[in-house]
Amino acid sequence: MTELFNRVIPCLLLQDGGLVKTTNFARPRYVGDPINAIRIFNEKYVDELVFLDITASRTGSEPDYDLISRIAGECFMPLCYGGGIRRLEQARRVVAAGVEKIAVNSMAIDRPHLLAELSQELGASSVVAAIDVKRDLFGRERVYHPGQRRLTRLSPVEHVKALVAAGAGEVFLNNVDRDGRYCGFDTDLIARVSAAVSVPLIACGGAANLDDMRAAVDAGASGAAAGSIFVFYGPHRAVLINYPDYASVRRLFKR
Hints:
CATH superfamily: Aldolase class I
Low-confidence stretches: none
Strand content: 25-35%
Radius of gyration: 17 Å
Distance between the termini: 13 Å
CATH class: Alpha Beta
Number of domains: 1
């Protein structure tokens, strides 16, 4: 099977060992067991999976290494994990469990030098700078700190540039205001961030369908990630783990 150049990536949120989906980073709704979801995605030739542990991010707890090991053991596709990574030793344990990429978000704000440590140890291609963006009361784009649940004064474009200079080999750009809203990606932001750095950028936040993902790629993203469209189905948002058939993705994302 020919590898797709532009990736279509389910982004799955972990909370207390289960899968949840949020709206605007709030009101998490339980959507199932992560292992069962992986088994379904394995059968659908998913390009890549991103798992973000929002419990570890918010509470300062250690990553759930046992769960990460079980997730990695089930995955047939490349796997990126983020949540609770604050030290190099933690990243080593996660990679040893079978994870290919480490995403760093809160600590990229609090201690950006961690990215340099990870890059030197694991290689830049295994280090993902995750950035959440939200507008303030005046409509200005600011980097959002997920661990402290607050806006910072950081400009998204300048923050991304600094993290790539520190050693990140990929950027995961998420939009808090569009999370779970099915309103499409912020293609203007994607275009500006992707133009500022030379590493791959994965866009997330707002996808309602594959056409939205195509628009993100056209704006400069190397791939598009989403949560809702891969865990819900229909107007009433019934829980259903799903992924578009390979032919549909192939037609839309021609190499």
